[in-house]
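User: Second chain of the day. Same drill as before.
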Amino acid sequence: MKFKKFGGQMIDDLGQYMRDYLLEHPNVRIYVGCDSEKMGRQILYVTTICMYDSEMRDGVHYILCKEWIPRKGTKGEDTAQMIKRIWGEVEKVAQVGEYLEKEIDGYIKRFASDELIKMELQPHQTKLVDVDIDINPDIGIRGENKSNKLIDAAMGFLVGCGFRTRCKPDAWAASCAADFHCKPRKNGRRKKKSRKQ
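Assistant: Same format as last time:
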């Protein structure tokens, strides 16, 4: 996975980039998120690594990776294809989270078990990064939130791996940062989805 800065500059060595950033900004908390969008015969996955310091007022510094994956099937997307696409997002945040676990160990504070219990989290959720998944825990009034079918499996998998995991509406690394780079744009602005009457 090749990450780049928001302005487009490629990052040659992700681990070194993260270590250098953490040496300059030791109080950040790192969030990994992913979102995807089907586009014809391909799926665009955008994975973000967001560095947030609650004491700074500069917002969030984040880097991103865009990947185009061929997909099979019809032009639309059935439930099985949707499940496979969303599960791909879950796998990508886990992959990046595990990579960072090795690369930034010793450069960022690891929560102790008693701190996690105070935060109402599981004492084994000691991974160095938090992960955000773009999945809605609410099925919706008419069942419109189809990603909801994966909420239990996704949360169970990621929490079981030791990640502090958030879903919508709190998962801004996925549903804001990654989503921003996923949606088709025209003239620099996000295209509005047409609503059928």
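The longest strand covers residues 29-39.

User: Great, on to the next one.
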